[in-house]
Amino acid sequence: MPNFAAGVVRFQNEVYPQKKALFEKLSLGQSPEALFITCSDSRIETAMITQTDPGELFICRNAGNIVPPHTNHTGAMTASIEFAVAALQVPHIVVCGHTECGAMKGAMNPEGLDELPHVREWLSYVEAAVEIVKETGAGKSEEERMQLLLEQNVILQLQHLRTHPKVAARLAKGDLRLHGWIYDIKTGEVNAYDEVQEKFLPVSEHYASEMARLATSEGCAA
Ligand SMILES: [Zn+2]
Predict the structure, then answer these.
(1) What share of the chain is helix, strand, coil (3-state, %, to 5)?
(2) Is 90 exceeded by the pLDDT of residue 220?
């Protein structure tokens, strides 16, 4: 029996009974706080990183946390984004890259992808980020260039998001917020892109003022 199948039995016997009320409520509908776009990499556990329950994140995963720019071609990402933004009305979209990303390594070294034609084509959506790294990464170490690519890829995919009509409309209306994150598999750190400072800052720092406001309002409520 595979480990993941044994897990289902454990879930049904041990976990489900504890959260029965939540699951019954979720059967009536969903109202997620965010569309969360991240890599398919098995080392990313979205619920654990964000400490969220089922129903809180509408998740789209693919190799490289890529958002193809909007075209007339219908793809899985296009349809999922449209549904999350226009039907579910999520107030936030997160694009979350991560360290040790195989897709980003492939984008940096496409000559190694001859036997993976679909991967190579998919990674063409990262090309502008790769070009930025080539242009600005001269003299940097391999590790620094990879970090730069992780960051530039997240920024690029946020730009692609803005080309999707329903996203553009909600941004114009002012009730949708975009977030660019990078998760460090080894340290558990999550850094968020700060558009004002034009760099990635630890989540605790980037959201510091909002966390302080939240603490104050909770204090008032109590
Ligand atoms: Zn990855």
Answers:
(1) 55, 15, 30
(2) no
